[in-house]
Write a structure and sequence with these properties.
The structure is a single chain. The chain is elongated, with a radius of gyration of 22 Å. α1 runs antiparallel to α3, α1 (about 1-25) packs parallel to α4 (about 150-180) and α3 runs antiparallel to α4. It has four helices and six strands; from the N terminus they run αββββαββαα. Helix content is about 55%, strand content about 15%.
Length: about 180
């Protein structure tokens, strides 16, 4: 029974962590190197994450500087950034790319909040699915007489507490992200 609960908790933690990394790549008005986590660059025929071919730094609140380790990749990185869904235009000076992160419009902020809410809801659904899987596992164990009915009930209660805890964490992450997106 403990293994079922521990497994469920591990999976729920992973769902919350995945939401956190998803939120990091969601653009706010502030510059962040995490914005570029999903960008892939064609590196000698291989689709490679940008962070593996360049240094990404944030010297100012609205400026990102990307310095490739191989100068020949500069135009390839520039193309990848332009094609991304970030809607930014990099300035290429031959050595580094400078990207000014413009402030978000009110309309764009509201769209991003909707995206964040949608992503959070998907995470809540994932946590509830994990709860259902764990409860099913407990019922199977009870049916095969591996655990008693009381143990199964206690296990279900414990799994429900975990579910509530992680759904609350998801809601807190969403609330923080909404504040971050809506601040000017």
């Amino acid at each position: 029974m403990k293994s079922v609960i521990n497994n469920a908790e591990t999976r729920m933690k992973k769902s919350v962590a995945a939401l956190g990394s998803e939120f990091n790549s969601l653009r706010t008005g502030r510059a962040s190197s995490a914005l570029f986590d999903k960008i892939k660059v064609d590196y000698y025929g291989q689709s490679t994450p940008l962070s593996q071919v360049a240094t990404i730094s944030v010297p100012e609140a609205r400026l990102v500087v990307i310095q490739p380790w191989d100068k020949g990749l500069l135009s390839e990185i520039e193309r990848a950034v332009q094609k991304s869904e970030l809607s930014v235009n990099p300035n290429n000076d031959g050595k580094v790319l400078r990207i000014n992160i413009p402030p978000l419009t009110e309309e764009r902020r509201k769209e991003l909040v909707k995206v964040a809410k949608n992503t959070a809801e998907q995470s809540r659904v994932a946590v509830r699915n994990i709860r259902r899987d764990a409860n099913d596992e407990l019922k199977k164990m009870e049916k095969s007489s591996d655990i008693t009915e009381d143990d199964a009930k206690r296990g279900e209660d414990e799994i429900q507490k975990l579910t509530d805890k992680y759904v609350k964490e998801i809601n807190n992450l969403l609330e923080e992200k909404e504040k971050e997106i809506m601040e000017i």
